[in-house]
Each structure stands twice: as structure tokens, then as C-alpha cells.
Please model this.
Amino acid sequence: MHSKRDITNLKQMTAAERKLEAMRQLKASFVQATRSGTVRTRTVSVEG
Model:
């Protein structure tokens, strides 16, 4: 959940800046999950 301060900052950003911020947060989350060993992956089987 975002704090009011975060939401105010997000509202002041352009659409491109909001996308970049979202990707930055997603990457940080992925890196943290990778380091802690909690990344979940799906196994894909291709038949054909």
C-alpha cells in the first residue's frame, strides 16, 4: 500500500515516469525474492 506522500508523487509523474517507477519496484521485488529463494517458476512442457 502506498502512503499519501507516495500517491502525491505518483500523481505528479507523467505516464512514462509512472511506468518506470513501477518497473523499478517490480525489479527490486524480483531481486529480493531471488536472493531470499522465494521466486516461484512454472514448468512449461511443449508437446508437438
Remarks:
- The chain has a mean pLDDT of 85.
